Amino acid sequence: MQRRIEQKWRPPLALVLGCTLVAVLSLPLAGIVAAKLAFPYAGVRASIMISVIPVVVVAGIVGWVLYRILLRPIRTLAARADDIRTGQAEALDPMRHYGTAEMVSLGQAMRQMGQVLQGREAVLRTYADHVTHELKSPLSVIQGAAELLNDDSLPDADRHKMIANIAQATERMQDLLDAQRALARASEPLASGSCKLSDVVPIGSDIRIIQDGLIPLSAEVVELVLTHLVGNARAHKATRVELTADTQTLTVADNGPGISAGNQDRIFNPFFTTRRGSGGTGMGLAIVRRMLEAQGATITLLDRPGAAFEIRY
Fold first, then answer.
1. What are the tens digits of pLDDT across the range 74-111?
2. β partners of residue 253
3. Taking the model in full, what pTM does it have?
4. Which CATH number fits domain 195-312: 3.10.580.10, 3.30.565.10, 3.20.20.70, 3.40.190.10?
């Protein structure tokens, strides 16, 4: 899970530039005053040294502060932008130093942009990796049925069966393509906002709110996520779904059979499903994760009885 940017006070850029301007204007005046005061006692050369050395030291300190607050964060952000372009996952981690408040905003915008770009790249890569395999089975059914239908001696009962197989395979392909489009749309950020958990909980007597709370995600996002998770729980014969919200997390837990150890690392993979025979596309949890990532949130599977998911925002 990606770390958040540390929230602490950072000087605004206007304050940094104002202090720098004051220092630049004050240093020559301070040098002149120091030389004038020292001249009657130390002579010309010593007076010049007395006035120049402190000015140089203070100028060096100002330069170091500007390097730390402005130049170094700008160079780091430029390097991060290049890492995002090349797909480096660590490019989305917070920087150690942001310098000014404006740099924090810029860094957060870059992280969000990187998440969107990498999410969309993952969608395309996922499509290339999986769609050929997933579509191969229904295409084989259609091809085999078409070949058999060319046989004029095929009994009518078998002919009707082949036509039904073609229709079923076509429907399966359409479901897969619709799910893929839904996954692509899930990568697009939705409107930001917040909502109360009890206002968006799907209707059902099997749902219990253990702890209500305000969630910093839009009602549309929370409703879609809960619809997927509760629907999965019901499809796996769970009779109770418990929801617990606090200031940082939303937990969705059910009393179903849970997820086997061999499948726990695969449940968020697109096209992975244990309900293929009943029409499952295996895109529900992938869509949920992609949608939450687009909002800056994460979802993880908890090690608890049944199936329990933690959404951290």
1. 999 889 888 888 878 778 888 888 889 898 888 888 88
2. 242, 308
3. 0.54
4. 3.30.565.10
